[in-house]
Amino acid sequence: MDERRLKELIEEKKYVTLKKELEELNQVDIAELLEKLDVYTALLIFRMLSKDLAVEVFSHFSVEQQRNIIGLVTDKELKYIVEELFFDDMVDIIEEMPANIVKKILKHAKEEERSLINQFLKYPPESAGSIMTIEYVDLKKHMTVGDALNHIKKTGLDKETVYTCYVTDENRKLEGIISLRKLVISDEEKTIEDIMNKDVIYVHTHDDQETVANIFKKYGFLALPVVDKEDRLTGIITVDDIMDVIEQENTEDFQRMAAMAPSEEKYLDTDILTLAKHRILWLLVLMISATFTGRIIMKYEGVLQTIVVLTAFIPMLMDTGGNSGNQSSTLIIRGLALGEIELKDAGKVLWKEFRISVIVGFMLAVINFFRIYLFDTVGPLVAFTVSITLFLTVIISKGIGSLLPMAAKKLNIDPAIMAGPLITTIVDAISLILYFKIATLILGI
Amino acid sequence: MDERRLKELIEEKKYVTLKKELEELNQVDIAELLEKLDVYTALLIFRMLSKDLAVEVFSHFSVEQQRNIIGLVTDKELKYIVEELFFDDMVDIIEEMPANIVKKILKHAKEEERSLINQFLKYPPESAGSIMTIEYVDLKKHMTVGDALNHIKKTGLDKETVYTCYVTDENRKLEGIISLRKLVISDEEKTIEDIMNKDVIYVHTHDDQETVANIFKKYGFLALPVVDKEDRLTGIITVDDIMDVIEQENTEDFQRMAAMAPSEEKYLDTDILTLAKHRILWLLVLMISATFTGRIIMKYEGVLQTIVVLTAFIPMLMDTGGNSGNQSSTLIIRGLALGEIELKDAGKVLWKEFRISVIVGFMLAVINFFRIYLFDTVGPLVAFTVSITLFLTVIISKGIGSLLPMAAKKLNIDPAIMAGPLITTIVDAISLILYFKIATLILGI
Fold first, then answer.
1. Where in chain A are all domains bearing CATH 1.10.357.20?
2. At the top level of CATH, which class does the domain B290-443 belong to?
3. Ordered mean pLDDT values, 10 residues apiece, chain B (445 residues)
4. Could you list the mean pLDDT of each consecutive 10-residue stretch along chain A, which spans 445 residues?
5. How far is B184 from chain A (nearest CA, A)?
6. Across the interface, do B259 and A326 touch by the CB < 8 Å criterion?
7. CA–CA distance from A409 to each of A203, A342, A417, B337 (Å)?
8. Where in chain B is the domain with CATH 3.10.580.10?
9. Domain B137-243: what homologous superfamily?
10. How does it assemble (chains A, B) (predicted)?
11. Chain A to chain B, count of Cβ pairs less than 8 Å apart?
């Protein structure tokens, strides 16, 4: 079913067919389709869905659609949604809703859930606590495999995942984990203690979500337990939520590296003032920093007046320097983010980049020499001046491009900030000074 | 256990303790630890591990370590490894190994497996076929839930995942899927046909891995079936492999956007000649393109000689233009990659970027005017010339920055190529022409 078919069926009031065809779709697709209708029609169709499916569809609506629907449904309907939503989805929704709607939602939450919601809202943003959920399968080590499977049979439908189960003691301390695969292939008489995995990898509620994502990537887990300061199991994080985290972290890095304040919102959903605000600060900082380059040029005004053609090569030198530095910084920033490069590799990285820059710089300089000597019809001394500057600029910019991200990491600043735009500004100044020094030396001005 | 403890135990020849402590660890960690030993010691420890664990550890070794180990183990050991490895891991290994080792591996594969390996090696790189595996649970629709669970109990250990099971007919056509969760909570007497999900989302062997990753992200699946041209089930892709794909695709985008040829290899494992080769081409192209900028400056030599101070603002104008364009292109490229922006949004995006660029450009221009008028002590007319050029440069560069990635997408070129470095080069030329035109107009040169 596509949008056209949906609207056709609505127009012809063929609701039975519509319900049947809709319920064959994946909940994500149903949510996507309903977003394309006006809110009243959407609510009409939403109400036709079977109750459990409706809740699932609801959790995939956009924030705006959720707000609209909550504003329109009856108290009874809202109560059902609130009760059936997974806890992490509910917390996410509460975080995004205006106060009056939050109040309406909390009214329908059970007392204990309400205090849990408050606790969850207090976890720092981008922490493990802020992305975990509480619907996990909790087993005891004295249970037999048969008991455990029965327990899952009874409670499994309401759990975010049943594929990894958690074994806790009477104080909620995590004692082990066991996969449903292991349960299914094991003898029913065995106890959980016999077959559970005791060497559990877990994270703390306040760990950064990037750390969590790296653990998922390294081990290929489907879920990861989250414990509090007293090592009590407080929640789990599932792999589907981690995929969002990975993309979010990548998007933030892309944005920082392009000199923007990072934002979680989708581009098309963000208003232009917010977008402008996210961009102006860095542009301003970089523009004002570029003053230095201007000052350097003014200082060497005399040189430029004597040999005006030197001005013509300034953009090429600046751009090549910026691009060279950008290549190095991007690789280092990415390597640091993925954990492929660590601070202790700094020496290795610098040595590597130095050798690369000598090769690359030399080739560029040679090609450049012949290109400008032959086609720009400048004297060999000018061509030589430009080329030797180019060679040194490539080496220096690759050095800066690899050093700055690691220095940032060392100082606990996000390395992504040390990307192209900042390095370009620094490299510009250095390459200009070099250029003029070399020109005065070689051309004897 | 850490590296120090491992080496201590080896030195003191406490092998029983060592084996015990090692086997408590996750297989990924064991592989990581063994990488830190010389290959003979690593092999010694590797041989101590229980056979099944050893195979799992083997699949997590680096390519080099795998090569070393294969070169040293006996034929019998190799046979065991080859038989027990997951099929996708085996294909990955074969792709990376030199011919003599591939021959050695294939000698131990069963006849039917050998022809399957050949088939898998033919899938295009980065296609769904190249990342899928064949170890899935295959059910028939007439089976009861009890039958199915028994089937899983018997065969489940050798499957890449048992959490999603696939229902096929006698011609291997995919008829439905069913989750282990559903099986576990369902009545044992029901047939698979009654409870399976018939509206299956799947991909084809030749679909791009990026498409596959986007489906995983959208639906939060744990596994996805892959069918051939005749809609026969040929394999499955699991979420842990998709996480690697996501990071690989992101890394490629980062590299393309920084004007490099993309590479899958880790930075520290890549030799400097390869790294240099990946960088030089784009640097060369961009360096030669910058010739235009030089030509423009030479053409307006006269203007610069009359008012030398104009040269001082060239770097600032170029950098701000580059940075502005970079911001836009990064957001658009990222939006396109995540599917948040589609080609049909082109008009919306351009209109949005235009309004943002007017706001940002105006603010920068005003601040710039006062800054250079007051601090650089140039006349108001020069300050005005620079500022109006800045304003227009920001608007044009944001326009180009948003247009080029979408044009690339339209032409089926990777939008990531249309990033900062290329846009900077184009914006440089345009902003210089603007600058000189405006200068001659306002300053009457």
1. 290-443
2. mainly alpha
3. 86 87 88 88 88 87 86 83 81 80 78 79 86 88 90 83 90 90 88 89 91 89 90 90 88 81 78 82 82 82 78 86 88 85 87 90 90 81 89 92 88 80 85 88 79
4. 86 87 88 88 88 87 86 83 81 80 78 79 85 88 90 83 90 90 88 89 91 89 90 90 87 81 78 83 82 82 78 86 88 85 87 90 90 81 89 92 88 80 85 88 80
5. 6
6. yes
7. 22, 9, 10, 27
8. 137-243
9. CBS-domain (3.10.580.10)
10. Homodimer.
11. 344
What is the fold, at CATH topology level, of the domain defined by B3-122? Answer: MgtE N-terminal fold (1.25.60)
Q: Give contacts of B349 with chain A, Cβ < 8 Å.
A: 267-268
Class (C level, CATH) for A137-238:
alpha beta
Q: Phi then psi for B262, rounded to 5 degrees?
A: -70, 150
A54-69: pLDDT as tens digits? 888 988 888 888 888 8
Q: How far apart (Å, rounded) are the C-alpha atoms in residues A130 and A95?
A: 10
End-to-end CA distance of chain A: 76
The two structure tokens encoding residue A79: 């109560």
Q: Of B148, B330, B151, give the one whose Cα is nearest residue B254.
A: B330
CB A222 within 8 A of CB B222: yes
- Count of residues in chain A: 445
Encode pLDDT of A243-253 as tens digits: 888 888 888 88
Quote the minimal CA–CA distance from B12 to chain A in Å.
25
Cα–Cα dist B353/B371, whole Å: 26
Chain B residue nearest residue A1, CA to CA: B199
Neighbours of B11 (CB within 10 A): 8
Angle (CA) B243 A137 A87, round 5° = 75
Partner-chain residue, chosen from B276, B359, B363, that has the shortest CB–CB distance to A360: B276
Residues of chain A within CATH 3.10.580.10 domain(s) are 137-238
User: Residues of CATH 1.25.60.10 domain(s) within chain B?
Assistant: 3-122
